[in-house]
Specification:
The complex is a heterodimer. By secondary structure, chain A is of the alpha+beta class. Chain A has two domains: 171 residues, no CATH class; 193 residues, no CATH class. Chain A is built from eleven helices and eleven strands. In chain A, strands 1, 2, 3, 4, 5, 6, 7, 8, 9, 10 and 11 form an eleven-stranded mixed sheet that branches. In chain B, strands 1, 2, 3, 5 and 6 form a five-stranded antiparallel sheet that branches. A five-stranded parallel sheet of chain B has the order 7-8-9-4-10. Chain B has a single domain, classed as P-loop containing nucleotide triphosphate hydrolases (Rossmann fold). By secondary structure, chain B is an alpha/beta fold. The chains are: A alpha+beta, B alpha/beta. The interface between A and B is medium-sized, with 17 and 25 residues.
């Protein structure tokens, strides 16, 4: 029966192809929409969860949050190192970490910070930087640029290649650690001692600034309590040229906007999905009417209606399995392509990550694929296949 | 043995068939003659359980076909009757082998397919698609499909109608000579083919009211 169903599909390959394409288009869009929105949400929650305040130059709060925690967009500017010193010694603060960025290596941002920033990270090879110009690189940076431990490279001024100015040829960086893949922005970033960033720029600007503190682009803080966090925010928001933001609040606002986009994508994919179901129904119906003569023939030979319906159901099961597998593969390939764009924006997508809701969608698709066959067969058997 | 008793089938107010009692004996070959539309095909369809008469009974080897459910009729036909149709009734886009092995769906043993195809002279066409065969070859496939299950009864409904006389003769010979122990009933309007059969029946002699009633 399976062999016959398969042959029957093969001789109607153009219609079969049409059904498969319509299922793939609608299913892949649905899967991608759900996968991306979930991954973005997960990544944002993971990244913003730990730190409760970012102190930085005044300007757009979302730019400050995205730049500091997701290494995307340009820094708003710089603030004095003494703010970091004050916060580090503030009894209301558990952890204060300075951040400085302004250079890149082949589009991967070079982030000047302290060891604390990488304290919870796991290493594939090596460990954290100890000396100036030692770097810890993300998994993708190592992978994309074939960098290994002890390899050296030259950073460029500017936050991206297109934005690049001169190369800092006098200060090559040496890889001392490679982070394990995290499927977060850390995979695409390079971390150095903040002093290295100051030295690179200080040397070129003015030899005398070597060994003195430069400025920072932001300071991230973990306060001891919510009340402490609020008072710190209030204090720094009252200082001219500074702002203190709660990254979770800012990111939630951004997510609300993304959520609206998500709803639109969901509605669109639902519309495409409904259209696909209609197309599948029409094609299946035409297919069955096409095979009306064959069905009658099989009935004349004595083949039972149950077996004939089974053949059509097997055909649609084969169709839906093929479509579902291709949809899944297509959605992962598209995710990989989208990741090329989003990873530059600070959102690293894991192409292999699958959410339970995606599985649910695939089951629903399989179920929906069978409905037209069952309906069409019932209709046909009621009307046309009575032999008498 | 097939026994028809007082079989009556009404199609509409003007058209009906009323057969007098008929008996077909096991192992014999019968040809039923009659003009087009005289009810020859209806008779075969009633015998095979494809259609049910409005009155009367049909018995095949002590099984009263007319009393069986449609499912049991289908099953009986599948196991006991090889039906050869005028228009071949083949799956045109599939191969010769596919058309015969289609019966495997109902667990008919098709292991002797090569032997049967050799008997009907189309073993070399086994993997050929039906639409690429000639009319004569298609009918041979239909005969092979009927013979594969070694049926008790072979019913052939004008199997030579769309073929030229020479091919028609070959097909008729195949049906009558390769039947082994089967009871063969072939309907035709071509009287030249009667020489291949043991019993010739003129349908009009067995219809109450004659063929004009049809």
């Amino acid at each position: 029966m399976f062999r016959f169903a398969l042959k029957n599909l093969f001789i109607r390959k153009s219609k079969v192809l049409l059904i498969i394409i319509s299922i793939i288009v609608s299913t892949s869009i649905g899967l991608i929409a759900i996968n991306i929105s979930n991954q973005v949400k997960d990544e944002v929650i993971n990244t913003t969860g730990y730190y409760d305040t970012i102190v930085g130059p005044s300007g757009g709060s979302s730019q400050l949050a995205l730049n500091t925690l997701f290494f995307t967009d340009k820094p708003l500017g710089t603030i004095g190192y003494d703010y970091y010193e004050n916060l580090k010694n503030d009894r209301r603060v558990n952890i204060a970490i300075p951040m400085a960025m302004g250079d890149n290596y082949k589009n991967s941002k070079i982030i000047g910070t302290t060891e604390d920033f990488l304290s919870d990270k796991k290493y594939l090879y090596g460990g954290v930087f100890k000396e100036n110009f030692e770097v810890v690189i993300g998994y993708n940076v190592a992978d994309n640029n074939n960098l290994e431990l002890r390899d050296t490279f030259i950073g460029n001024h500017g936050i991206s290649e297109s934005d690049s100015g001169h190369a800092h040829e006098n200060n090559p960086y040496t890889v001392v650690g490679i982070l394990k893949k995290t499927n977060t922005v850390y995979d695409n970033a390079i971390f150095v001692k903040i002093d290295s960033v100051w030295k690179v720029h200080g040397q070129e600007l003015e030899e005398s600034t070597i060994n003195t503190h430069g400025e920072v682009t932001a300071i991230i803080i973990k306060s001891k309590s919510i009340q402490d966090q609020m008072t710190i925010s209030d204090e720094y928001n009252n200082v001219g040229g500074l702002q203190a933001i709660n990254p979770a609040t800012v990111i939630r606002e951004i997510l609300n906007n993304i959520d609206l986009t998500k709803q639109i994508v969901y509605v669109l994919s639902f519309v495409i999905f409904v259209m696909s179901v209609i197309i599948i129904y029409i094609i299946t119906l035409l297919n069955i009417y096409d095979t009306k003569k064959d069905i009658h023939l099989m009935r004349l030979l004595g083949i039972s209606p149950k077996k004939i319906v089974s053949i059509f159901i097997i055909q649609n099961i084969i169709l839906s399995i093929i479509s579902i597998v291709i949809s899944l593969v297509t959605s992962r390939i598209l995710l990989a392509c989208i990741n090329q764009v989003t990873s530059n924006m600070g959102i690293v997508l894991n192409c292999y990550k699958m959410y339970p809701v995606e599985g649910m969608i695939l089951i629903i698709v399989a179920f929906i694929c069978l409905i037209p066959t069952v309906f069409a067969n019932l209709k046909l058997f009621k009307k046309d296949v009575k032999l008498d | 043995m097939i026994t028809l008793k007082n079989v009556y089938k009404k199609f509409n107010e003007e058209t009906n068939l009323h057969f007098i009692d008929l008996v077909f004996e096991k192992g014999k070959t019968y040809v039923i003659l009659g003009p087009s539309g005289s009810g020859k095909s209806t008779l075969l369809n009633i015998i095979s359980g494809i259609i049910s008469p409005d009155e009367g009974t049909v018995e095949i080897d002590d099984v009263e076909i007319t009393k069986l459910s449609q499912k049991d009729k289908d099953n009986f036909r599948l196991k006991n009757i090889g039906y050869i149709f005028q228009d071949f009734k083949l799956l045109n886009e599939m191969t010769v082998a596919d058309n015969i092995e289609l019966l495997k769906i109902e667990k008919v043993d098709c292991s002797n397919i090569d032997e049967v195809l050799k008997t009907v002279g189309i073993l070399n066409k086994k993997n050929q698609v039906i639409s690429k065969l000639s009319g004569g070859e298609k009918q041979r496939v239909a005969i092979a499909r009927a013979l594969i299950k070694n049926p008790k009864i072979i019913l052939a409904d004008e199997p030579t109608q769309s073929l030229n006389f020479e091919i028609g003769q070959q097909i008729t010979q195949l049906i009558t000579k390769e039947n082994k122990d089967s009871l063969v009933i072939m309907v035709t309007h071509d009287e030249r083919l009667t020489k291949y059969f043991e019993v010739v029946i003129k349908l009009e002699d067995f219809l109450k009211g004659g063929v004009n009633n049809v």
